[in-house]
Amino acid sequence: MSERISVMITAEQIAARVRELGAQITKDYKDRSLVLVGVLKGSFVFAADLARAIDLPLRIDFLGVRSYGEGTESSGVVQITHDLSKPISNEDVLFVEDIVDTGLTIAHLVDLFRTRNPRSVKVCSLLHKPARAKVSVNVDYLGFTIEDKFVIGYGLDFAEKYRNLPYIGVVERD
Ligand code: 5GP
Q1: From the CB of 74, is ligand 1 less than 6 Å away?
Q2: Atom of ligand 1 nearest to the CA of 108
Q3: CB 104 less than 6 A from any atom of ligand 1
Q4: 3-class DSSP assignment, residue 171
Q5: Residue 110 neighbours by CB under 8 Å, 6+ apart
Q6: Cα(147) to centroid of ligand 1, in Å?
Q7: What is the pLDDT of residues 78-130, one digit of tens each?
């Protein structure tokens, strides 16, 4: 089986949207105690670009998660494989996600983090596939709404490959 990749969102389109999101977040979190929490592995590229588009003295931390599910479908049972390096009590947490698909992963993480007494918890996701939603998730900052296709690149993988593509692509199987 060979794989062809078609471009869905170009690097330039991503960069422009990340700048807009960064400017909005800068405005909204002025004088707050912002902690970006990148959800690994998929968000590492987006988190790095978004952090540099925000003009605030923020902290950045990462959360490793593993979702148990059938194939590419997540089950909502999320195991933390790598926890934050510091507590988040009284801080303004902004989750940075690559994609909200069924919504189960981020819904679980938001519920879990609320028990850690942060001042606030919000969600920033580069992509959202509303067609696949299983739970309703409030995505406070959203890059792009996309149709129901399996996407790769800009942090997102296909069997651990393609995370380094500078654009969002779709694998076409021949
Ligand atoms: P959810 O719990 O919202 O269904 O799944 C979220 C996670 O599933 C994402 O963080 C991502 O790791 C993975 N995922 C969902 N859709 C896609 C996709 O189209 N492409 C890739 N590479 N991963 C996806």
Answers
A1: yes
A2: 2
A3: yes
A4: strand
A5: 95, 121, 123, 137
A6: 13
A7: 889 999 999 999 999 999 999 999 999 999 999 999 999 999 999 999 999 99
Q: Within a domain: residue 23?
A: yes
- Whether 159 maps to a domain, the answer reads no
Q: Which residues pair with 120 in a beta bridge?
A: 92
Long-range contacts from 10-19, C-beta under 8 angstroms, 24+ separation:
10/167, 11/154, 11/166, 11/167, 14/49, 14/126, 14/143, 14/154, 14/167, 14/168, 15/49, 17/143, 17/144, 18/46, 18/49, 18/50, 18/53, 18/143, 19/53
- Regarding pTM above 0.85, the answer is yes
Q: Which two tokens stand for residue 169?
A: 């692509």
Query: Tell me, what CATH number does 56's domain have?
Result: 3.40.50.2020
Q: CA-based angle 89:92:94, to the nearest 5?
A: 120
Reference 40, options 58, 61, 62; nearest CA is: 62
Say if 138 falls within a structural domain: yes
Edge-to-edge strand list for the sheet holding 141-145: 77-82, 59-68, 34-40, 92-100, 120-128, 141-145
User: Radius of gyration of the chain from Cα atoms?
Assistant: 16
Task: Determine contact, residues 135/163, Cβ cutoff 8 Å.
Answer: no
